Structure formats: C-alpha cells, structure tokens
Amino acid sequence: MAQVPEITGSILVGAENHSGGKTFNAVQAATGDLLQPPFQEADASHVAAACARADEAFATFSEAEPELRARFLQAIGAEIMSVGDALIERAMLESGLPRARLEGERARTVGQLEFFATVVRDGAWIDATIDHAQPNRAPAPRQDLRRRHVAIGPVAVFGASNFPLAFSVAGGDSAAAFAAGCPVIVKGHPAHPGTGELVARAIGRAARQCAIPPGVFSYLPGTTHALGAALVSDPRIGAVGFTGSRAGGLALMQVAAAREVPIPVFAEMSSVNPVLLFPAAARRRGAELGKAYVASVTLGSGQFCTNPGVVVVLGDSDHAGFQAAAASAMQECLPQQMLATNIHSAYMRGIGDWSGRPGVQQLARGAASADPNRAPGVLFGVAADRFMADASLRQEVFGPTSLLVGARTLDEMAEVIESMEGQLTATILFDEEDIAQVAALMPRLQRKVGRIIGNGWPTGVEVCHAMVHGGPFPATSDVRSTSVGALAIQRFLRPVCYQNLPDALLPAALREHNPLQLMRREDGQFCAPAAAR
Amino acid sequence: MAQVPEITGSILVGAENHSGGKTFNAVQAATGDLLQPPFQEADASHVAAACARADEAFATFSEAEPELRARFLQAIGAEIMSVGDALIERAMLESGLPRARLEGERARTVGQLEFFATVVRDGAWIDATIDHAQPNRAPAPRQDLRRRHVAIGPVAVFGASNFPLAFSVAGGDSAAAFAAGCPVIVKGHPAHPGTGELVARAIGRAARQCAIPPGVFSYLPGTTHALGAALVSDPRIGAVGFTGSRAGGLALMQVAAAREVPIPVFAEMSSVNPVLLFPAAARRRGAELGKAYVASVTLGSGQFCTNPGVVVVLGDSDHAGFQAAAASAMQECLPQQMLATNIHSAYMRGIGDWSGRPGVQQLARGAASADPNRAPGVLFGVAADRFMADASLRQEVFGPTSLLVGARTLDEMAEVIESMEGQLTATILFDEEDIAQVAALMPRLQRKVGRIIGNGWPTGVEVCHAMVHGGPFPATSDVRSTSVGALAIQRFLRPVCYQNLPDALLPAALREHNPLQLMRREDGQFCAPAAAR
Predict the structure, then answer these.
(1) N or C: which end of chain B has fewer CB within 10 A?
(2) Has A305 been annotated as catalytic?
C-alpha cells in the first residue's frame, strides 16, 4: 500500500511541524509488518511547547462566542470527511478493523462532533444563574450574584487503541473539551499514529478556517510513558481525559494527584459488563438470546469497553437452551483479528489463565489461526461460588471471550453482583414474569454501574443527552462523570460567580438583558429567553 | 456555667450512644479552662459501626421521595432552634465567638437547611433527561435512554473550627449531602464537641420524626488524625466534605487517593482572597474603603475563609488616603478573641514571621492583651516585587491581619495576581474611570478564583443558587465544586442511565408520565411538567 501523502510523521505543535530525537513505526495489525513513514517521538520539549501554545490560546478560545466553537466542531467533522478513503485505509492497516466498522466509526465520530455543536449552541452547559440583589432584605441586603460555567483549562487527551477515530484524536474527549472551550493536546496512540496524524491535520485545518488560534490543538505522537507523564505534569494542563487500560489510567491518576496543583483525571479503564439472565426470558427466548450474546461478545473481536464479559444465569435447567445456542455460535466463530500484538498476547494469556482455573470449564472455542494477531473466541462456564472465590475471574480479559456464571438462587445472583467491582454497564434479560426478581436487584445494580440496559446488549453506546458511559471505579476514575453524551462536557467546566458587577464587566451569558438568549435560572425560576417567550 | 443537661459526651452511632476507651475535654476559648462533661474519643470500631448503619440506611434514604428529604432538612432546622439558648451559650464557651455572631450563624445554618429543602423539592438536581427510542432510525434504531442523578453514597463530613454551626455538624456539607440522599457521618471537631453533640442530637430527633432510618446520621467526636483517616478509608464511604486547614485537607486527599476505590474529596482549605484597589476608587473613596477594609479583616477576629488577606494597591500616591484610614482603624482595633489555642499560636507565629521578612513594614498594630487566645490585629505593607519574591507572604495567616501590596503599574498588579495560588475570591474596588483597567485583568482573575466581587468585601457568603464558594487549588481540592449554594448538592451526586426499561423498573423521576412533575429534558428540549404547562 502506497504511503498516504499527507502523513509526514511529524509532531504537530499548534500549526507547526516538529521533529524529535527518535522515531517509531506503526505496525500493520494483520501482518505485523512495519508501516511507513516513521513517526517522530515527542518528548518533554514538545510537551512544554504545546502547553505554552495551549495556554496562550486559552483566553481567546474559552471566551469565544459559543457559535464559533460550534462551527469549529462542525468544521472538524467536515475536514475529517474530506480526508476521504485514505483515512479509512490507513485505519484499517493500523488497527486491523474492517472497513465497514471503521466507516461506521467515522460516521459516529463526525456525528459526535455535530452533536457537541448542538450542545454548545444550546448553552445549557453554561448553567447561567442569576440571583438579583435584594437591597431591602433584613437583616442584611442580598448582593447581586451571577454564576456561569467556564472552561477548566487546556485538556490532555489520551485516546484508546480500540477506537482509532471515535475515542482518539477527535473523539469524545476532544469534542467535549473543545465544546467546553478548552484547548486540547492529544498524546497520540502509538498503535495508530498515521490515522491520528490525518485527523490531527483535519483539526488544524478546521482551526485555520475558523480563525481560531492554532495553539488550541497539538498532536504529540509517542510510545513512552514518560511522554504521558510529562503532559499530565505540566502546570498549564487543567484536566485529563483517558480511555485505556486500568494500569495506564491508574498511572496517570497518580501523576495528577502528585502535582503541586492536583487536577481531575477522567479515565475510563476497565469493565466486564455483567449480564443477568432471568428464568422466564431464558426459558422462552434462550436460543435467540444465546446467539445474540455471542454476537455481542465477538463484535469488533470483543474489543469494546462494553463487551459483555460475564453472564450470570439463574437456576439449573432454565438456561440450557441459552447455553447450548451460545456454545454452538462460539464454536462457529472465525478467528478474530485483534488490534495489536500486545493486545493479542494479553488476550491469549488471559484465556490461557482462565482455562487452568479450578472449576472453570471451557464451553466452546472458535477456530484458531496462525496468522498474526488472530485469536479464537472462547466461552467459559463456572459456578457462582467459584467465581466469587477467584478474583482473577472478575478481571477484564479484553477480547472475544466471556464467562457464564451459574447462580442457584436470586440471592446468589445478588452476591455475584456484590462481589464485582464497579462497571460501565449491567444488562438485564427478562420477561414480564421476571420483573419482581429484577426489581429486587435494581438498587444493588445501580450502585455498581453507570448504565442499566434492559433486554439488549451493552455494546453500542448512543451519543445523546441521556447517555452515561461511566461508572464506579475501576470502570472510571470519577463516578460523577461520563465520557459519552452531552454530560461529558461538564468534566471540563468549572463554576465562577460574579458578585455585584456592572454589565460592562459581566460575561455576555450573565448580562441583564440576556444577549446570548439563554435559558437561565433567575431568582430560583427557570426563565426562557425573551425570544422564546 | 452549669453543664447543659443534654450534653453527655457520647459517641452517636445512629440512634445509639457509645463509649470509647479514652476521653477528651472541650476548652473554654476565652479562659483556657476545661469544660465538662468529658467526651468519648471515637475510634475505628465506631467508624465501622457508623459506616455499617449508613450503608444500611442508604438504599431507603437515597430513594426516598424528595418531599421526605425536604421535610427532614426542615425538621433539623426546627430541632436546632428548639435547643434554644443552651446551644448559643455552649458555642460561645467553646468558640469564644460573641453571642450576636453565633445567633446570626445559627440563623444562617437553619436558613441553609430551609434553602436545601427548596432545592430538593425543585428537583433540578435530578437532571431528569429522556431520549425516546427512534425505532426507525437508519442505519440503526435508537434505544430509549433515560438519565437521572442519584446519591453518591454515605458522606464523611469534617467541620471547621471557625463556624461551629454553619460549617459543622449540620452545616453546608451535611445539608447538601442529605439533600442529595446521602447518609452523613460527621467527624466531630474537637474544638466544639458540645455544640456538635447538641446539633447531632437535633439531627437524630429530626430523623425519628420523619421516620428516616437512624443510620442516616452518626456523630464521631475525637481528637486524632487516625479517626479521620479511618473514616475516609472505609469502603462504604462515597465522598468526603472537609473545611479546614491545607495540611488537613491534603492529608485526607492522600488517604482518599490511596484507597482501593478512590473517592472524591471536597476540601475547602486555604485562601488569602486578594483585593485589588484601582486608582479612581482609591482617590475618591480611599478613606471610606480603608475603614471598611479593616472592618472586613477583623470581622469575626479575621477567622473567615474569605478574609481579605492581601490588598493590592496601584500607583504611588493614589492610595495614601486608603492606607492612612486603614492604619488608623487597625490601630484602634481591640484585642481579638481567637477560637482556640492552636489557632492563636499559629496566628502569633504568622505575624511574627511576617514582621521579620525583608521589605515588610508594619503599618499598624491593634491593642494586645495577656488574656488567653487574644491577638492583636496587624496591618503590614510590602512592595510588589518583594511580595512576589517571598512565597511565605502569599500563604494564608489565619486571623485579623492583612498585607498591603504596592504595585507600580497595572502590569505589576497582574503579575502579583499571577504569582498567587488559587483563591476562593478576588475583590475589585473600582470607579467608572477604572473599568478599562479592571476589564483587562478579568480573564486572569477568573482563572485564579471562584468568585469575583465588585465594590464589596469577600466576607459574607450568600446561600443562594448563584453562589460559588470554591476555587482553584489550594482554595479547594476540586475546582469544579462549591461548598455553599445550590450547586453544592452536585458534589454528592452521580449520573445513572437506564436503557430500554419499562416504567415498572424505572425510578419515578423518569417514568413516562412524569409522576414527580419535574422539569425534564426530553429529546433535547426542556419540558415543563404538565401541571405547569
């Protein structure tokens, strides 16, 4: 495959191309071959330069009118589309993901930028709030007090290997940070540096078109932990968005906590996304559900953060049809192309380890292949008491595998949930007759997860107002956050209050005559803008 | 003074009285005498018991209808008032604060509970959000998605010595946590354990009246760091509210970050609250402002987190009248009664240290007294370059002192701001002619502080929707939070999403026909409840 002309391997500090002292190459996932060109390794000097530019750009960008930021987000989407097929082809090479999946992911990425443009325009994120003065109040007058949300500062973004577009350079973290008014510095993922550069240059073009200072975005490709640590340590960084492994997320949390000025880290790390199968649903729709289960487990070679890694089944006989259908589907599963050598190796180690665990039974194993980074889908079974006794079975094994956990009673099902760590999602498969049992478990489920899914599968995360893609630790580092959906913008905002200031010194959002035509809370009441009244 | 009958010195675990192995006594601030009765020292066993009760109470309390929680908050206020003068008298003994101040603080505390009752009833904190299914959407249907906020878990509260009522047992952190649906465990402040117990028993009575499980509240008096660390370490605790010293807040942040499951700590710690005096205001109103400045510095013996610790004046001659009036007012200042021996000693060390710093001039010193815990008010002056060169001058000295910093130019004033750490507040004193200069500094101020006050003083924190009592580190540990005002409830909430669930499994806030009559966001639009349409 010919080199895509636009990929230079440069470090992008604002609009400038930089070189580093060392280089690295991307690897073709399906063959293990090195891809060209080599990429410059960013180091602490590039971090410092990028942070200086981001800091300079902050004042302008964070106070830009919402419309400008909305147009910037849309321009990024348009520029990504304008890269055309070269982007899909490079991403296919680097990630081993198939064309249809990557085209879908690109659509989702662009759709997400569009969505955040509507979020910025809508202005609810500003949370404009006014309590007017009450000069005659006794015993003391009330001052005029006005509050809004402002950008938290430049944001460091660490993308994920499994979504080279939607959770990477112009993914959800970057879109939410730009929407909030924060400059973004991306530490490029070494598994897809070319894809990353193509998208990074699209962002740069969009900034130029919108006359936004180029320091609003920098792209620092690299392979070292030191690069990430330098970025998170820089005093000009105000927050961190991360999607990846638990070890990686924890390392960045530690760096952030050890700073002179600690900053929030929003890390989405690890989840096994339990599915609870209730008896009536298992009896009535077992075969259909079993097949759908394996489709969800093997979707994208199982490389989703919402992959259903555990299904808890209830009763001894009800789920026989479910289990048989799942085993049969897994048996037929073709070798799964994985993203990269380290991910493939970790997966093979993980299923090897599970195979040897006491009480764990291999229920089905898909086809293997000797080609690079191909993995078999595997279905395991284990009794609830063994699952609860063996912490290693409750850890995420990233890839196309899942564990059927047999609980004898509803109480035992509840104990299984209780034994698990925090999760992004829990899924309940139930029929009408199961509802009382489901209802009894809901409070417990809610304390463990960020999203509860009824009669569906956790894979597939909608970008909308109501989405929560977050959850208790270790699903994320901050249970109060989501990395997908409108609420994701709040990670990168902070409140500021203005007391007794004249209109001339107030930001537009809080001026008395509401020039931005925002929905505001005034003296405790929500007030629609005059135009909407 | 006779012992107030209701004070027993017990540890309160839910509704039960417990004893510990050791005891300690409260100290009368004005005399240094020990007060009776002795207080039981809570230890790790009481932490475990209190956390178990809180955890049991969580499911009921967090899902109680908002109206019940609102009534609970109001009942706490009523029960605090019903303690009557015994509460004020005990607080006067323990804190050395005068009657009028404590009566005002009690009114504020009760008012804050009332305010949070309106916040709970209003329901905006639920952030109820619905994106309906779009079964015919291409290329994939959208599922029905609904989101609300729920309580984060039991909350550990550490009160402040300087507000024995409003930032202590039933203060802002407890009110916000109860409002959010979180059980509360208070680590009682050793400087006002009797005041604390009287309020703790009022909370217990309120819970009983409202038939709320007693585990919703426990009160653990104690003097050791180990007690606080045990409480923050307990896996059942979901968040921490703290008001106090920087060292104390940092210690709790470290404990929380080192947990197996890290939790958020909302610590309000340290602020010197710079005031910027602009030339026209200084010329026109210098004398009046100088007098008001010293009134704010010495209010409550300077023991407010919003005490104006630094005033930056501009130009060489414009502020002569301001400085003369301030010095004269400080000279007349009577000896200041401080809260406790350790606070008095730290203050005396602080002003002693400043007196010996190169370039620091003592501009005025109020009267001294040999009585226990009395301190002189002191006004210092220093040139901007010395202030910026000497980090110790930028640290908070808690008490009735302040530092006049002379900047030669607007640029130097900006550099002074830049040299400072994060702050709760900044205050600007200006006249019409100063506005262009003020406007030039606003972006910089905004990055440093949580609240910007025009032509007023930072002391006096209104409890309302628009308030922000927070700010960049070290003012608080989390710049995204406030510990006063409606937004304070959000510290103790997390989002949960429900996908494709029938009404029977949805919480009331999200059921299709809106039984709680909430303002909701549906398919991107804000919808008033039917009753309000």
Answers:
(1) C
(2) yes
> What is the pLDDT at residue B223?
96
Share the mean pLDDT of chain A. Answer: 96
Instruction: Please judge whether B504 and A118 are an interchain contact, meaning their C-beta atoms are less than 8 angstroms apart.
Output: no
Catalytic residues of B: 268, 305
* A98 three-class SS: coil
Each residue of B297-306: pLDDT tens digit? 999 999 999 9
- Chain center to CA of B256: 19
Q: What is the pLDDT of residue B507?
A: 97
- Dihedral sign, CA of B43, B44, B45, B50? positive
Could you write out the DSSP letters of every residue in B239-267?
A: EEEEES-HHHHHHHHHHHHHSSS---EEE
Specify the pLDDT at position A1.
39
Chain B residue with minimum CA distance to A500: B454
Contacts of B29 (CB under 8 A, 6+ apart): B93, B94, B95, B96, B337, B338, B339, B340, B372, B373
Q: What residues of A are in contact with residue B150 (Cβ under 8 Å)?
A: 446
- Taking CB atoms and an 8 Å cutoff, what residues of chain A touch B508? none
Comparing C-alpha atoms, which of B299, B312, B239, B305 is closest to residue B475? B305
Quick check: A5 pLDDT over 60?
A: no
How many angstroms separate the CA atoms of B524 and B533, rounded?
Answer: 18
User: d(Cα B190, Cα A216) in Å, to the nearest integer?
Assistant: 49
Inter-chain CB proximity A145 and B464 less than 8 Å: yes
| Long-range contacts, stretch B364-369, CB < 8 angstroms, 24+ apart | B364/B326, B364/B327, B364/B328, B364/B329, B364/B330, B364/B331, B365/B330, B365/B331, B366/B298, B366/B330, B366/B331, B366/B332, B366/B333, B366/B334, B366/B335, B366/B336, B366/B400, B367/B333, B367/B334, B367/B335, B368/B335, B369/B335
With a threshold of 0.95, tell me whether the complex ipTM lies above it: yes
Which is it for the CA torsion B218, B220, B221, B225, positive or negative?
A: negative
| Strand B378-383 with B361-365, pairing | antiparallel
Q: Which domains does chain B have, with CATH numbers?
A: 11-132+143-269+483-490 (3.40.605.10), 275-454 (3.40.309.10)
Cross-strand bridge partners of residue B289: none
Per-residue pLDDT reduced to its tens digit, B345-373: 999 999 999 999 999 999 999 999 999 99
Residues from chain A contacting residue B253 (CB–CB below 8 Å): 257, 262
> Which residues in B322-338 are b (16+ Cβ under 10 Å) and which e?
bbebbbebbeebebbbb
Question: Which residue from A145, A465, A501 is facing B462, i.e. has the nearest CB?
Answer: A145
CA separation for the pair B417, A215 (Å, rounded): 24
